[in-house]
Description:
Helices cover 54% and strands 13% of the residues. The chain is of the alpha+beta class.
Amino acid sequence: MNQSMQQSPLHPDPEHSPGGGRGLTSQPPAPRRVLGWMYTWRVFLAAGLLLLVPWSTTPIRARLIAGAVVFLLALLTLTSYHRTHRRDQPVDRQMVWVQLIADACFLTLAVLLTGGDGSIFAPLYILVIGAAALLLPAVEGVAAGSVCIALYAASVAATGGTITSPLLLQLVLFGIVILVTSYLAERLRVAGAALGEVETELLQLRLDTGDILHTVNSGVITVDGAGCLGYLNPAAEELLGISAREWTGRPVLERLDEIAPGLGEVISRSARERIAIRRSETRPAHGGTAILGVSTTLVDRTSGETPAVTAIFQDITEKMRVEALRRRAERLEAVAELSASLAHEIKNPLASIRSAVEQVAGGGVDEEDAATLRALVVRESDRLSRLLGEFIDFARVKVTAPQPVDVLSLVRQVVTLVRAHPDAGDRSVQLELPSKDGPLCIRGAEDLLHRAVLNLVLNAVQWAGEGGLVTVSVDEVFSDLLSPALGAFGLVRLTVTDSGPGVPPEIAEQIFDPFFTRRPGGTGLGLALVQRAVEAHGGAIFVDNAAPGSGLGATFTLYLPSLPEEAVAEVAEPLQSSMP
């Protein structure tokens, strides 16, 4: 420590730091605390002198010295205590040296008065050495300890003692104690300084985080593993209409579900299944319209106990209303486009039929031409009937009475049917299923799903080309891609890959549009019906092209929300018993 620091505190006093020193067990005790211990042992030293000195047989000079020592001990202790503990003045290095030198001198006088090397007070040098190690840097602590050893040796010599082996061993032990305690105290000081810096940074981080959480517009709530409220920021108090002071430490999940149905449920599920849910939406409360967008994170993932969960949420009611208006406008626009496309598709066959009928009815047409015209009328009428039938199927896509459906069984049936279809020809259809036992269920309309999967696989077969290959695979993945109201969920993924030419990027956004087709004779409603059926089941469908050079064409990937395991268990037995 340089000279400019002589009058400054020796090191930060944990008792006066923000943490209060209670949690900093890896640094030396506070200087005030060490001095307090020194004051206490001085009282015992004074008491020992008063009790152990044979006052009746001791020469007057020795008695005067003993009395002076007791008086000076009391005076030094009282003045020091008043300064450090009453006036709360900082403990600087100069004061520490004064205290240590005074204690060493008083102790030496006590040893002289009570027999030198045989004195009962001789082991008390250890206390002075320990105090020096705790209060001073390592080098100065060793110096102070060396002074104690020198004074002890001088007291022995002054009483006529000699340097015997036991005394020499005692002095060596004192030296070892000096080195060890000084080293350990210095290490503790270094560790304590580092810990103090970390504590300061953590305290600043806590203050900064608190400021952010108090000013952020999003609601933040933390619920512990027992379902009790741990934290609620002001924005959350305003959105939920509850008080953090009133509910902190109390079970809060049921109350959250009353205010915003689904909020307590998603927090409970996140803690129970130990997963962070990135997207979720609550339902409007009874008589209300508010909807919250929620995401959760786990505070503790390592312990075996149920972790605490922090949920961040916002009021997305207005956003949902705007989104509903946008979807309504898109539906109206889609209806207009669909009507125009349907009118166009009907117009051409009707024109052909009308022309043929007019020619036949007008006469002047030989029998062979009349037969051709009559065949044209029948063919175009069939085309119209097929077109209107498929359009009616497309328009009526709706899941009215959903039931558990085993996707694995359904896909097996579809693949068997496609392999026997005339369009399959010499094309190969491979089926890849997961290795898991039991059904892979979703909730929906089996007939509608069967029609959608059949259309999807048939479309792949028709584009695979001569000798082509179609691969159909089913597996289960976990993602929050679908249904924000449900959060992260298991998804059934159906992938259909063909060896055809793929989908040109410029029409990738159109292939699911009604009446859009690139296949001669197609109505353009097959893939549109697939998309409608998938969306009716809360799913999604995507199309991608395989990597160049892979020999594959387009890949259609269909996602549907799967049933929870407990629901699958309830329907597994009936499904298995119904299998042939």
